[in-house]
Amino acid sequence: MEIKGRPATIWLSLPSDLLIGESTLEIKEDLLIEKRKVFFEERYTCILLSEIEGIEITQKGDKIFSFLFLAFLVGRLYFLSFISFLIYLLWRPTFLIVHGKNLQIGISINQKDIEPYVEFANNLIEKVKEYKKH
To answer: pTM of the predicted model, to two decimals?
Structure first.
C-alpha cells in the first residue's frame, strides 16, 4: 500500500510544507519507505516498522511563517510581521507524520480527500502491532 503527497520537513515536531516535488510513503515487508523527489534529487528514507511509535494526521501552521513573524517583529518590520502572522494563521496545511524512535517522516496531504490517508495510517498501525507482537 502506498500514498502520495508533497514533501514536508519536520523540525522539533513542527512540520513545514516544501510546496514542490512529490513524496510517496510505501509499506514493504518490515519497512516504511519514503521516496522523495524535489527538483532533480531523489531521496529514500526507511524506518523499520518495529521502530514506529505513533502516527499523526494534523493540521498545523507552517513553521517558516512563525519564524518570519518573530524575525520581522524583532527587526521592527511590523507590516511584514503582520503579513507573515496572517499567512501562519490562515494557511494551515494538513500533514501525515510518522513518529519513530529517532526519526520522523512526514508528508503534506490533500485536505479535501483525507480518507485514503486515514486508511493508510490504520493499515500501518495494524502492521506495527503485528511486528511488535513478535
So the answer is: 0.77
